[in-house]
Amino acid sequence: MVPLENLLVLSAIMFSLGVYGVLARRNAVLILMSVELMLNAVSLNFVAFAAYLDPDKVLGAVFAVFIITVAAAEVGLALAIVIRLFRNRATSNVDEAAIMKW
Amino acid sequence: MTFDEGQGYVVLATIAVPLLTALVLVFIPGNQKMAVRYISAVTGAILAGLSIYIFTAYQLDGADAQMRLRWVWVENTAFLGENGISLNLAVDGISGLLALLTGVVAFAGALASWKLDFRNKDFYILYWALLAGVYGTFFSYDLFFFFFFYELAVMPLYLLIGVWGSTRKEYGAAKLTLMLVGGSVLIWIGIFAVFHEANLGTFDMEKLWAAGRDGTLSPEFQKVFFPFMAVGCGVLAALWPFHTWSPDGHMSAPTAVSMVHAGVLMKLGAFGIIRLGIQMMPEGAEFWMPTLMVLGVVGAVYGATAALTQRDFKLISGYSSVSHMGYVLMGLATMNQIGITGAVLQMYSHGVMTALVFLMIGALYDQAHTRDMKDFGGIAKVMPLWVIFYGIAGLANVGLPGFSGFTAEFHIFVGTFKSYPVFGALAIFAAALAAAYMLRMFAIVFFGPFNARWSDLKDLTPLERLSGGMLIASIVIMGVWWAPFTDRVGQTVTLLPGVTG
Amino acid sequence: MGAEEAWLLAAIPAGVFFVLAIFGRALPRGGDYLGVAAILSSFVLFFVVLADFLDTPGKIGPVINDVEWSNIGESFDLRMGIYIDPITITMFAVITTVALMVNIFSIGYMKGEPRYYWFFAVLQLFAASMLMLVMADNLLLVYISWELVGVCSFLLIGFYWEKRSATEAAKKAFVTTRVGDVGLLIGIIMLWKATGTFNIQEIIHLVEEGHVGQTYLFAAVAFVFLGCMGKSAQVPFHVWLPDAMEGPTPVSALIHAATMVVAGVYLTARLLPIFEYADGALLMVTIVGLITALLTGFIALAQTDIKKVLAYSTVGQLGFMFVALGAGQPAVAMFHLMTHAFFKALLFLGSGSVIHATHHNQEMDKLGGLWKKMPITGTTFFIGSLALAGIPPLAGFWSKDEIFVVLNEEWGIWAVALLGLSAVMTAFYTTRLFIRTFMGKPMDQHVHDHTHESGLVMTGPLMFLAFLAVTAGFVVFHGVGKGLGFPGGMTEFIFLPHHGPHKYHFDAAWALASVVMGGTGLLAAGWMYWGNSTAKSTQLAESQPGIYDLLRNKFYFDELYQAAIDRGMLGFSYVVSWFDRYVVNDTGVDGSAQVTGFSGGVLKYLQTGRLPNYAMAVAMGVLALAVVGLVVRG
Question: How high is the pLDDT of residue C495?
Fold first, then answer.
């Protein structure tokens, strides 16, 4: 069996990549993908802990399923917003959509 | 269903009837203005009837809280124990009298708004929602619902003044609402503190009062949290120096709103000080009452002095309200039976006479479109009845025997004198100032050479006569025959904790 | 029917007030007959009460007791009742008689005036309140009636409200007395605090037993007396009474001469046992009375409005009454109160008759020589003037003489000298008033030509009051009192326990002194104004312009008060208004709103609208929380 540490390190790397993506990217689609990356990192964490700590119950896996569901809904919503943004502004750069301010 | 339970439904009806009226009005098309008026008039009459019934049916020598009704809403879950939050209604001597006040003023106000044409449906929806809140606050024996109804009574004011008002209405409405909400926040904090400290898992007021008496709410706790309740409620009662919403709010408010606001809503504040302060934290009350007395005296003298040189009718009434509510606070701060009884009587008295004053101001303003006193003169020539009605309200304001003002102020003076002679003397002096500012207004507006500009003014309409007559009757009955009022109030006041004989 | 029915005296006029106030406009002749009938029934009932009172000589005291009014627990039990003693009986006699005469007189005087019905309505309310005031057995009811008569006075002074001056006078009267009433209410509550009751007899009883400390008692009594000074227009509260002459003249006769203004005298007399126990209180009463009598005597010398002269003379005579009270003799004060009520009501109604006949002319400078034109008015006015001047054997002589006697007994000859000076001036200005109105040549021929005698409805009351002004003084004699069925002469049966009854006995020396005082003033005025000539007086005024201006302008009391009100009270009010507007509201309330707004204005720039900024903030937040968590756990 793969040691827990490996999984956690993988998860951490994925999460950090996600954070970097959210902070550094300007393209809305890429930011969305980075968010998905972070969510998957978390899912991975859940599954890994579930398998190691309490293999009989599948509580962690249940959470992973929840996360996938929520992520799907989120992507559906977010992509719709991005499409509206693109239709209106002909861009998907989030810096150019900074009208929600003072 | 026992008789007492049946009476409980009467109490419930005072809240349900205005709420249902508001709901019914929602479904009436906005252009059916007459239908709206008739429905509101009927509701007002029903409320007045229910209120008179509650006041008269309240039994002397019976239990303190009567006509009970309890519907449990949430209990035995999470942090709540038995009777956690329940719609717990009852009437005692104080709320019975204030309900009578509300009924009379609500009816009079509903009639006074008959002439209102601009979106009158929406006006009445808010108006009745507000009144449901007022009744709910008076009758709630549950802290949660007390606060809920309190907020229900305060919130509609913003729209009522902001939409239907005059003279800097947005400013007046915003200031009034923000100040009152600020007070509510303090109350809300206080309520949670009490709930947490008592640790009874219930918002039932009687249990919390018992907790306040037997020391479950420690004296230190009470000393810290009494100001939250007193100031929070005090804002609504125009406690100096949190009174400035009163002159501006009244100046902006439409007639009926001024009537209900000065007549009834300001009393919610003083009532809250009794319910949440004196009854719930007797130790805190004892500690803080001298301070409240000082603020009350300052308010009484300050309001009367400021009213002396105003030119706008409504500003005079606004400052005079500050002065009279100062008396109420003084009466409460005496912590003796006479003073507190006087304070409650003053709430009633000030309510009916201020409602009458604002009714009269409205009757003039609707025609003249100015409230600057210097524009008028010799109005008695064209509006004799108006002058008589306003004159009676003014003389009641001055504390003339035979009108309710004297009954109330006399008790307050005696009570204050008993505990704080110097403040008592100051209060009596402020009453003389009241004579000065009232008579100054009479002299300028009612009498003197007639200003021909006003020859088209019409005297009171039949509806104004009816609502004004009702208010005058309320003023005179209390002024001449005190016993029914003092008996009921006294019965409850003698049972208040920490109150001396 | 007996003394128990005394409450009807007040109840009937009160009922008629409501009828007249509500339906009067619709009644023929404004319902004036209802008013007269109400007062007449009170007048008759007075005799019923009196008869019952005389039948049972010991019947002094409460006739209706302990009517439950209201109570709050045990602590505050209010009871009302009626108390009748010789003081009340005297007041009943004065009020019902004068009120009846004034009501009848008003039918003629007020004929054709607007709001005729309202005038009669308020007269009834006044009579009811005044009667209630004098029969109340407790201070609370006294205070209630006290304020009600004040309101009636306000309404009647301001009866001609179209005139700015009338409105201002009404306001001035109400507010000035109200200032005194502050003291009265404080005093009443102080007495209550010390004794636990409002009942006058109980208070007196407890005070006599020594339940109240000296200093405290004096303070309470002084406060009560402040109210009496306000109502009875004693210096420095006297300013409202002359202005009150703006009201219709019958009102001046009833309210501002005979009844309401003596309420202060009545209350002081009623509470005199307490005054007696408070060291210095009687001296205070005497001094106030003396100052008032002197000051108003001087002022009246230089006034030319006939009603104002009478008003100042009323204030002065009230001072005389207070002096009698200060000497510890309520009986003498009540005696003077009664005689004064009759002759002063006569004088006022007489001047009313003149004013009515000359189409509202009340300036001496336009009158003169009216005796021939108005024989009845002139003759009755002559009688009244002599009574006021204190010429024997008219009523005023006897009562004034008694005041000198008791004043001498209590405070000595210096007090008598001061009061005597006032008496000389009274005689002087009264004579001047009479000569300049009724004798000599007319000053204004036009006014004179249009003058005619008033009708019987007005002269009738004048003749009746003139009869009383002649005879009322005789009741002081023991024999006359006995003959009328009383226990004795008037001054014998009202007294203080410590001073004892004052039995009248004729003392030639004092009588002579009185006559000399009255005669001096009378002759001096006669010499100066004979034939209605103002040459000598003008010369005198011009030789002493400073003094003349001082008197003419009433010692500048009005100007002083006006300045105090404008600079002091109103100035303070402006300051408070300014403070409220700019400090409390604009700085405190709006200021905190502006601070909130300003912080929002600054902090809003954190809201960049850029997604990466928010994301960075979230990331930093998480990082910070992680660090904090590690440190805390660490």
Answer: 64
